[in-house]
Amino acid sequence: MAEPGADDAKSAPKPRRETVWDQGGRVALGLILPLALVIGWESAVHTGLAQGRLMPPPSRIAVTLYDLAASGDLWMHVQATLVRVALGFAFGAVAGIAAGALTGALPTARHILDPTLQALRAVPSLAWVPLFILWLGILETPKVALIAVGVFFPVYIGVAGAIASVDRKLIEVGRIFRLSTLQLARRILLPAVLPATLTALRTGLGLGFLFVVAAELMGASEGLGYLLIDGQQFSKADQILAAIIAFAILGKLADTVLVAVTRPLTRWQDTARETL
Amino acid sequence: MLTLDSLSKTYSDGTRALERIDLTVPQGEIVALIGGSGCGKTTLLRLVAGLDRASEGSIVLDGETIAQPHPGVGLVFQEPRLLPWLDVADNVGFGLSHLAKTERKARIAHALEMVGLGEHARRWPRELSGGQQQRVSIARAFVANPRVLLLDEPFSALDAFTRKDLHGHLLALWQETKPTILIVTHDVGEAVALADRAVVMRPKPGRLDDAIPLALARPRDPASPHSEAATRRILAALDRSLKPAQAAAPTEAAQWW
C-alpha cells in the first residue's frame, strides 16, 4: 500500500536532541544572577560600602560552611535533617497516595473523607505544632509527624485529582479488551495517574523541606533548623546564611534525585522534558 | 452471522435512542450505517460492542447473546484512543497479553506491516500523525482476529487523501480473515467505497429506514457509473429519512431485510 506523503508530513517532528553546548549555555544563563549578587556584595563589603555585620559577605559564609564541614558538625546537622525529611516524606506520601487513591476511585469514600480532609487542609500546618508537642513530646516523633502532615496534603490532592480525571475513553479501551478491575487498575489507571502523582510527590518533597525547618524550630539540638535558631540567638548571621545555603542545596539535590529516579517512568509524555 | 432482534435503547433520562432495530448480517459482509446526527448510529455500535446494555431486544453472534464486551467483537473508535504510555507495538498488542510472546510479536509485526507502519513499531503514539494513529488503532482491533469489527466514524477527522489510503488498508485487512464489519459513517462516498450494503437510519428515535445493496466489484472506482448510481440512491434514501416519519412506516420498513 502506497504511503501518502500528506499523512507522514503531519507526523510530529522528533524533538532536536540537546547538545552539550545547549546545556552549558542554559546553566551559564542561570548562573549570571547569583554570581552577580555574590560578586557585588563581596565588593560592597570590601570597599566599605556595606558593613557586612547583618549580611556577611559570601567569603565569610563560605569560611563558616567550611569550618562547619571540617569539624563534622555540618554533616551531623544535614544527616539529622535528612532523616527527618525522609521519614516524614515516606509517611506523608504513603498516606497521601492511599487516601488519594481511595477517594479518587470510590465515590462513597470521597463523600465520607474528602470534606474532612479539605477542612483539615485549611488549617495552617504550623497550628499543629503545640498539639503535636503536647501529644508526642519534643523528640523526633512530633517533628516527623509535622513533616508528614505537610507532605500528605499535596500528595492527597494530586493523586485524588489524577484518578478522578483519568480519561473515560481510555477506560473504555480497557473494557473492550475485557480487562478485569485489577487489570484495569494496573494497565490503565496506574500509568495514567503516574505523571500527576510524581508531580504531587515533588511538591510534597518541597513542602517536606519547608516543614522540617518549622519542626526543628520546635526545639532540636541538631539539624539545619537548629543551626538557624542557634545563629539567631547568638547573632551569627554567617551561620544562618550557611544553613540557608545548605537547605537550598539539599532541597535541590533531593528534587533532582527524585526526578532522575522517576523520569524513565514518564518518558512517553510529550511534555515531560519541558516540565521536569 | 450477527443478528440484532428488536433492539431498543432508552436512556435513564427517558430519551429513546433506538427503536426496534432488526438487522441480520451474514459473516463477512461490510455494512455501512449512515444517517444524520442523533439517529442512534453510535448507540447501536456501543450496544453491539457490549459497552452499553440494550433496553429491549437482543444481539446474537453465531448463536451467542452479546450483553457485554465479547472476544469475537472488536471496536475502532472515532478517535484512535491509543494508550500514550505504550509504544506503537505494545498498543497493537494490548489485547494479546494471553498469547505466548513469540506469537504475540509475530501477530503485531504482521498487523503493523498490513497498515504500513512496520518501521514505526517502537515509536510513541505522540510521534505519529492522526492518520498513522488511526491505522495503529485499526491494527489493534484486527490483530485479535474478531468475527465482528465495529468502526465508529473512524476516518471522520482525517483529510480525504488519508481517508482513501485508510480505506485501502482496511479492505486489505478485511480480505485476510473476512470479519463482519459494521461501519458508522456520515460520508456517502465512504459507504460506496467500502460497503456491501448501506443501511440508512432515521432519527428521533433511531430506526432503520432503508437498505441499499452495493453489489459492486472491488476495487471500486468512485467515478464509475455504478458507484455514482449507488451514491445517488443512498443520497435519495437519506433525503427520505430526514422527512417526518409516515405513520407505522418504520416498523414495516425495517422488516424486509
Defining traits:
heterodimer, A: 276 residues, mainly alpha, 78% helix, 0% strand, disordered N terminus, B: alpha/beta, Rossmann fold, 2 domains, 6-stranded mixed sheet, 4-stranded antiparallel sheet, 35% helix, globular, disordered C terminus
Short description:
The complex is a heterodimer of chains A (276) and B (257). Chain A is an all-alpha fold and 276 residues long. Helices cover 78% and strands 0% of the residues of chain A.
Main sheet record of chain A = none
Shape, per Cα inertia axes of chain A: flat
* Beta-strand residue fraction of chain B: 15-25%
Query: Could you state the order of secondary-structure elements of chain B as H and E?
Result: EEEHEEEHHHEHEHEEHH
How many whole angstroms does the radius of gyration of chain B measure?
A: 18 Å
Under CATH at level 1, the class of the largest domain in chain B stands as Alpha Beta
Terminal Cα span of chain A = 41 Å
Rounded mean pLDDT of chain A is 85
Q: Roughly how many Å apart are the termini of chain B?
A: 14 Å
CATH third-level topology of the largest domain in chain B: Rossmann fold
CATH class of chain A: Mainly Alpha
Output the structural class of chain B.
alpha/beta
Tally of distinct domains of chain A: 1
DSSP helix fraction of chain A: over 70%
Helix- and strand-based class of chain A?
A: mainly alpha
Provide the low-confidence segments of chain B as ranges. Answer: 247-257
